[in-house]
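COMPLEX REQUEST
Ligand: FO1
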Amino acid sequence: MKSLLICGGVGGAKLAKGFYRSDQNFDLLVNVGDDFNHFGLHISPDLDTVMYTLSDQVNQKQGWGLKDESWTTLENIKFLNSETWFQLGDKDIATHMVRTQLLKTKTLTEATQIICKAFNLPLNIYPASNDPIETIILSEQEKYSFQEYFVKYQTKPLVKGIEYHGIQKAALNDCLDLESYDNIVICPSNPFLSIDPIIKIQELNNFLLKHKERVYVVSPIVANNSLKGPTAKIMQSLNIDVNVLSIAKHYREVANNIVIDASDSNFINDIQSLEINCLVSEHLVMRSDNDKVNLANDILKFLNA
Ligand code: FO1
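STATUS: Structure written out below.
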């Protein structure tokens, strides 16, 4: 059995690690809507987070960046009175430098393959597209680039809308053979910031609409709150009830199955009345590596049932 995991950054990478540790046959399709250029470097935060997490190199406390990092470059950027709101560690900068150099002659997919090899990662980690997709956050007054909203302004602006610039023209990663996957798992990443900029790519969207019985959403909401990051806050500011039913509704066009936490069992009937299968796990909150493997194993049981 082969799965495709659709994945954003920190939350998605945790489930990906559970699959990786469970020795499963799977490929990853990763969001590039957060990518941006900073000091001339092409930064792909979600690809980095996934690679660092799977290779056990991630800074676990942050969930992003490398462990055992040093910050001499950032300190000197500060000394030079330049911008330090986006924290680039010395070792991490090497990844961005190498990617930027590779992108002069190669696609983002090829650059990612080369970096994965260095991190000893034998699996396929595909950027959602080789074309630029840029997630833009609209608040009442302003428009923010993703990293400005997320890091510089710490998700404080009230989100009134989200745009994915370039998505209409963006081609789905052409390494993917969608028909080759027995099932597609949407990781517990932020639906608006991390998953929509992948699944709204036209070719993938058309495929999911036709094959939604193969698609499994893992809820990023547990007990009316986000597992990680600003999902709940964004739902509130978009006037969406913060619960698993809203997540099922958000994905109902493209997914026929949702995995929820046991603490949300009271929503099973409402979800089933949308003709969506509801699968219950006790492991949606992933604190340890064991939790990640346990959740992956629960999902694999559902996929094999
Ligand atoms: N997230 C932060 O909250 N603050 C940072 O300074 C920061 C720096 C950073 C550098 C490289 C990288 O690959 C990721 C980094 N992230 C940082 C994480 C990133 O902005 C977000 O986790 C994702 O874009 C959201 O999925």
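REMARKS: The chain has one domain: 3-304. The domain at 3-304 is CATH 3.40.50.10680 (Rossmann fold).
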